[in-house]
Design brief:
320 residues, alpha/beta, 11 helices, globular
Length: 320
């Protein structure tokens, strides 16, 4: 009987503790607690982000859970905010839910523009919903992949929970294996061809999250990336995904070097982030990098910091 009583006491104590936790969270941030409960019970939510934009998040979807938990690419997002400037033209390759699309749209303002690309119909619709909810008029969102040439390609679409791993290559990321949903035939554009068609004279920044297709995107934008005034590039490199398109992190880094870029690892710090020169090595499991032209790197007054230290990145030769 004593054991039963002890068990009941522990159960009651645990229940009281959970209720107290809910009440505390509700009092601290009632809106966020409401959104947490909605997601718990299977409803999508429009979640305010630290960068001053909102994002639709979805229950059971890993990327949404990480973003809601405020632990998704915090260092890269801080660097992204530090680097972008009003009036810039930005390319978002692999928009997924549209997080970087709307952050970029806010940062470049009405005088700037964002060209975003997301080939998966499911993720494209979700990104479009987020862009519309933020009421940005400076975004063009295309249901298109970026690659080496203008073509039609097969997109491997994962189950909703693993939508971050959709790829135009073979699924090789360990977290994506066994989670194939279906295959979609989609358009793929070479970035040089697209920019020429749209008569875009300059791109200032490119963000790439294309699950192994980084080398293809870089080759399809050879003219853009090899020019002295080429854009700064936020990119992930990973030997978990690159082999699915017969590539590797080493080949991506080598191509960036061929185009004249200096490559830095975006490293998280307790007070923000630091940019450290990327050290070439063998297999790279996963790394977030920032590629800069020498003139861009030289214009950085301080690298990293606590979110208050800003770079003096200009527009290049067109800055007056």
């Amino acid at each position: 009987m004593q054991r039963c009583g002890t068990g009941e006491s522990r159960l009651t104590s645990g229940l009281v503790s959970r209720i107290a936790g809910v009440v505390t969270r509700a009092m601290t941030d009632p809106g966020r607690e409401c959104r947490r409960l909605k997601m718990k019970y299977g409803l999508s939510v429009f979640d305010p982000q630290p960068e001053g934009v909102g994002l639709y998040l979805y229950p059971g979807e890993q990327l949404s859970q990480r973003i809601f938990g405020r632990n998704f690419e915090t260092a890269v997002r801080q660097a992204f905010v530090d680097m972008l400037r009003p009036g810039w033209t930005v390319v978002d390759a692999g928009a997924n839910l549209g997080l970087y699309t709307v952050i970029a749209a806010k940062l470049v303002g009405p005088s700037g523009h964002v060209f975003a690309f997301e080939p998966s119909e499911r993720e494209w619709r979700r990104a479009r919903k987020t862009v519309r909810a933020n009421r940005f008029n400076n975004v063009d969102l295309y249901r298109t992949a970026l690659g080496e040439a203008d073509a039609e390609v097969s997109l491997t679409v994962c189950e909703e929970s693993c939508g971050a791993y959709n790829s135009i290559g073979t699924l090789t990321h360990p977290d994506a294996l066994g989670h194939l949903s279906h295959v979609e035939r989609v358009k793929s554009r070479a970035l040089d061809s697209f920019l020429a068609e749209k008569k875009v004279r300059q791109v200032h920044a490119v963000k790439m999250d294309v699950e192994g297709a980084e080398e293809l995107v870089l080759r399809g934008g050879r003219q853009l990336f090899s020019s002295r005034e080429g854009p700064l590039i936020f990119c992930e490199v990973s030997d978990k995904t690159a082999p699915g398109l017969n590539s590797s992190a080493e080949r991506v880094l080598a191509l960036l070097g061929e185009y004249g870029y200096e490559v830095f690892t975006v490293a998280a710090e307790s007070d923000g982030y630091k940019l450290r020169p990327q050290e070439a090595r063998g297999r790279i499991e996963y790394e977030e990098v920032l590629a800069l032209k020498p003139w861009q790197a030289s214009e950085l007054t301080r690298i990293g910091g606590n979110g208050t230290e800003r770079s003096r990145m200009g527009h290049g030769r067109d800055e007056g």
